[in-house]
Design brief:
seven-stranded mixed beta sheet, 26 strands
């Protein structure tokens, strides 16, 4: 069987897009390039993400260029593009348009100050063909591609108004009854709207921009007793870095000397600095508030936690929410339909006996007011603000699908150990006590929290040597000590090996009654027999009860899924007020249980939770969990605080609400504006002003998400 062709992802910076129709056109030309499997274009970030087999970068760039836009590859480590020069150009053009159109507006308001026709034509022509050249260029590119966009509508509308005015002037010779001010003010209003839109869109990027600027540009390398300040790019794994009080930590690493309080609030959302000492891990961009630290570098550049966070946020902003599909389908046919409506409007007014000037102006109003900008901005701007604000508070949302699914969940399922509890159990009791040495020998090679509890309890006693260690996820462990074959695990493992647990039942029942997690030690050879029962106690996480109560106030059901024994699981569930318990289940059983709870969010932190996280509508991985859990989950919580679960669902709800509001107003605006323009109730100037402000209002509505604060 041939090996699967590797799929690669390329990010492109796209310039020249103005509306949702442009997005549709760029996506269409990119997907036609050989090898491309999918392309998603974001109008708000002006980026395209292309998934392809053996992608040809130049072919992608050429395809975008032929569609009338420009493209350039965005490398993972490249700094954000500087858009300020273009911003300054746009502002200069806007000021010039306002100055040149002011005399025309004044003459319309005060007839005595009306300029002569040649002067009106001269001012309007400068605005039309210099400041409005961008609309002709982009509109012509769209027309050549047998498509349409906002620029084509503006170019057609303003040219019609300018041409009508020129014809009236040349045929009548007088300065009254001309519409040069309509064309000039239309372009001025559109330029003003695009400038406001650009400023608003930049505001949506503030959260991500703040993250990308956190990492210091230099680090202080320690060689022997000498400190040398070097660019961060010259630091390597294993290098020793000195961080003084008040400085940002430049790399991910491990403290080898010193101690201090580390402020990681920009990465994890933690409100207070946490004490760190030798052996503790620290992350780049955290602040060393006090103390003198020497850190051994473990990750640099794209490997750091900060880089991973930025990538996750960028990935979320590069994807499309399912709710965007309706807008995409509409924008694909929007401009041709609008042009058709304008033609019908022109013909209808002429048939009704209206003057040609009136018919043309009403058709122009239809062309100008029908702008698909808002449709293209409603979803990406809300996602950008929502995911950015969530990231600053320690909630990383992988993609737009996870965002949309999270707001729809009705049930939240939790793993127990390490999620609802601290995951640092202690051995409360073992019967008989002399079996502790054998139990500790079996657990020597295990990374399970219960194994660590046994090792801690047995650290002062002599232990035999175990061989042939084997871990059985969801069951326990097995090993040999001499000629004895031993197993240690839950009651399911004992049943599978035919172990009679009757002699240990009274002690096991007492441990279960006390809320302890019960494990058994048994011998399978030379003869099967039970050797001991172990009871483990774990501490419920601080704030867990309040987090469950908050989920209940939000109208959500809570479920516990655990491989632990029924008694221990129900004891924890009763303390927390959890609605439903599924105990004694294997990892695959957790996935099956989750599948029956749709729509559901699964919260976990361990490798055993990965199948359940994948089976849920949205998986939520707790901070400090395994990389497997974080890679499987749709949402990652950077701190192990359960209150973040409710916050993640709440920010998802608010973001999707803003998306729906934006799409509603975008559709409602056109549904109301186009008929009014066709019926002659909107002049071209009013239509231009309304069109220019429609997309700005959608972006500003999304910006209201910046006021979101955590529930607790």
């Amino acid at each position: 069987m041939p090996a699967a062709t590797p799929t690669q992802t390329i990010d492109l910076a796209i310039t020249g897009m103005t509306c949702a129709s442009c997005v549709s056109r760029v996506e269409k030309v990119l997907t036609r390039v050989p090898g491309v499997e999918a392309a998603a274009v974001n109008l708000a970030t002006e980026r395209a993400r292309v998934t392809a087999n053996h992608p040809d970068l130049q072919a992608l760039i050429n395809a975008v260029h032929k569609a009338g836009f420009t493209a350039a590859e965005i490398r993972p480590e490249a700094p954000p593009r500087d858009t300020h020069p273009q911003d300054r150009t746009d502002l200069i053009h806007l000021i010039a348009a306002a100055v040149l159109s002011s005399p025309l507006l004044l003459g319309m308001a005060i007839p005595a100050l009306m300029l002569p026709a040649p002067a009106q034509c001269a001012l309007a022509s400068i605005i039309q063909f210099w400041l409005g050249a961008r609309f002709y260029k982009a509109g012509w590119a769209a027309a050549r591609a047998l498509s349409g966009n906002m620029d084509l509508l503006v170019a057609l509308g303003t040219t019609a108004a300018w041409g009508l005015s020129t014809w009236i002037w040349l045929t009548t010779g007088h300065a009254h009854g001309l519409y040069f001010e309509s064309a000039a003010l239309l372009i001025t209003f559109v330029l003003f709207g695009k400038w406001l839109e650009a400023k608003a869109k930049r505001s949506t990027l503030t959260a991500l921009a703040a993250l990308t600027k956190l990492r210091p540009a230099t680090a202080r390398l320690l060689t022997g007793t000498t400190e040398t300040e070097l660019p961060i790019g010259r630091i390597r794994h294993g290098d020793l870095i000195v961080v003084r009080p008040g400085e940002r930590i430049p790399v991910d690493g491990r403290i080898v000397q010193g101690s201090g309080a580390i402020d990681a609030s920009m990465l994890t959302g933690e409100s207070l600095p946490a004490d760190h000492t030798v052996g503790d891990s620290v992350a780049a961009a955290s602040i060393n508030t006090d103390g003198h630290l020497v850190i051994e570098t473990t990750a640099i550049g794209a490997e750091t936690m900060l880089a991973r966070i930025v990538r996750l946020v960028q990935d979320a902003q590069a994807t499309k929410a399912p709710i965007q599909r309706l807008a995409d389908k509409t924008s694909a046919v929007f401009v041709p339909v609008v042009i058709g409506i304008a033609v019908v409007t022109l013909a209808a007014w002429l048939v009704a006996g209206a003057a040609p000037a009136t018919a043309i102006l009403n058709a122009v109003s239809v062309l100008v007011i029908a702008c698909p900008c808002a449709l293209g901005l409603a979803t990406p701007t809300a996602i950008m603000v929502g995911t950015g604000m969530a990231a600053r508070r320690g909630i990383l949302i992988r993609d737009a699908q996870a965002l949309e699914r999270a707001q729809a969940v009705q049930t939240v399922a939790f793993d127990k150990t390490g999620t609802l509890t601290l995951g640092k159990p202690s051995l409360a009791r073992i019967v008989p006590a002399e079996a502790l040495a054998d139990a500790a020998a079996l657990q020597a090679g295990s990374e399970h929290p219960l194994a660590e509890a046994v090792r801690v309890a047995a650290k002062t006693i002599e232990k035999p040597h175990a061989e042939n260690f084997r871990a059985m996820p969801g069951l326990g462990v097995a090993a040999t000590i001499g000629d004895r074959h031993l197993i240690l695990g839950n009651i399911r493992l004992m049943a599978e090996n035919g172990i009679d647990l009757a002699p240990l039942t009274p002690d096991a029942a007492a441990m279960t009654e006390a809320g302890h997690t019960v494990s058994y030690l048994a011998e399978t050879a030379p003869q099967p027999r039970a050797l001991a029962v172990l009871g483990f106690s774990d501490t419920i996480k601080p704030g867990a009860k309040q987090a469950i109560e908050q989920l209940h106030r939000m109208g959500l059901r809570t479920v516990m899924l655990t491989g632990d024994a029924e008694g221990a699981a129900r004891a924890v569930a009763a303390q927390l007020g959890i609605d439903e318990v599924h105990a004694g289940i294997l990892p695959q059983g957790k996935a099956e249980a989750v599948a029956a709870l749709h729509p559901v969010a699964m919260v976990g932190d361990g490798i055993n939770d990965a199948p359940a996280l994948a089976a849920a509508d949205v998986g939520i991985a707790m901070g400090g969990g395994t990389d497997v859990a974080m890679e499987t989950a749709g949402i990652t919580l950077m701190r192990g605080e359960l209150s973040l679960v409710a916050d993640a669902i709440e920010v998802s709800r608010r973001t999707v609400r803003k998306i729906r509001q934006g799409l509603f107003w975008a559709f409602a605006y056109n549904a109301l504006g186009i008929p009014l323009a066709a019926l002659g109730y909107l002049s071209p100037m009013v239509a231009g002003a309304a069109m220019a402000l429609s997309s700005v209002s959608v972006v500003c509505n999304a910006l209201l998400l910046r006021r979101w604060r955590p529930l607790t």
